[in-house]
Amino acid sequence: MMRSVRRGLFATGGSWSERLALIAAPTIAFLLLLAAWQGVAAAGLVPAEMLPAPTRVVSAGAAERTALLRHAIPTLIATVAGFALSVSVAWVTATVLDFSRILRSALLPLLVVSQTLPLIALAPLVVLWFGFGLLPKILLVAFVTFFPMVVGLLRGFAEADPEAERLLASMGASRATVFRLVRLPASTASFFSALRISITYAVVGAIFAEYAGAVAGLGVYMQSAKNVFRTDLVLAAVGVSTLLTLCLFGIVVLAERVVAPWLRIEQGRDRTHRGTRS
């Protein structure tokens, strides 16, 4: 069992050269972008107040690392708490909708409509209703990340093998048993795909909520730096938020490899099969 888990943890579905290419391509693109940015700033084509050089951003961020860390912690707490709430409610909602076709036809359009609500208008209202504490940040993060997970779970449930469902039903299995043995395992891949999508929105949702009203957080720090025209500090805070997002995304990917290592193996086989066919 441990051997299969290790294979799931480290298998990426391709040769080492393919894995290296997947890492090298975005790394080279990022370094070229930084080099172009540094060149534009060094040439003075754009005023330094508008676009400071990357070296200046890194230097300013290092000088303000204590303040950045102090403000990053509330953002991280709101992100994790809101995301946990979103996952829990999404599971319950998707399960209820899967069991009831009437509720699904009635509520799913409302969930779609909820995504048309502009966050820039919703965030101040939530802060107005619930104050400047942690709760409005948690609720906004949950709101931003809730819909992709519900849709992903419903799609995963729908991908269950109908023949396996009919077989269990013919053996007298209840609908709950069919759901637990067939539909729930079938949703694993879609669920983790939805998690990866949602986690990228979570930090943005928390920062947006802090912009609307908070006493601490990266959103508050960015707003303060913007008010004193410190573009370098704003970009340094953006860099910290990006690192937070990448770390949380990495945790989700690691959780997928630990919880469902067979998904990586199946994806690797699919890629190998496609490569053989081509």
Q: How widely separated are the two ends?
A: 34 Å
Count, helices: 13
> What is Rg?
23 Å
Shape: globular
Which class best fits the helix and strand makeup?
mainly alpha
* Quaternary class: single chain
Strand content: under 5%
Measured as a percent range, the helix fraction is over 70%
Number of E strands:
0
- Mean pLDDT, to the nearest integer, reads 83
Which parts are unreliable, with pLDDT below 50 for 5 consecutive residues or more?
1-13
Q: Which H/E pattern describes the elements?
A: HHHHHHHHHHHHH
User: What can be said about the biggest beta sheet?
Assistant: none
Describe how the helices and strands are arranged.
Layout: H1 2-10, H2 16-43, H3 54-63, H4 65-99, H5 101-114, H6 119-130, H7 135-158, H8 162-170, H9 175-186, H10 188-212, H11 218-227, H12 231-259, H13 261-277
Describe this structure in words.
With 278 residues, the protein is mainly alpha-helical. Helices cover 84% and strands 0% of the residues. It contains 13 helices and no strands. It has helices at 2-10, 16-43, 54-63, 65-99, 101-114, 119-130, 135-158, 162-170, 175-186, 188-212, 218-227, 231-259, 261-277. α4 packs antiparallel against α5 (101-114), α10 packs across α11 and α12 packs across α13. The longest helix is centred in the first third of the chain and has 35 residues, at 65-99. The two termini are 34 Å apart. The relative contact order is 0.14.
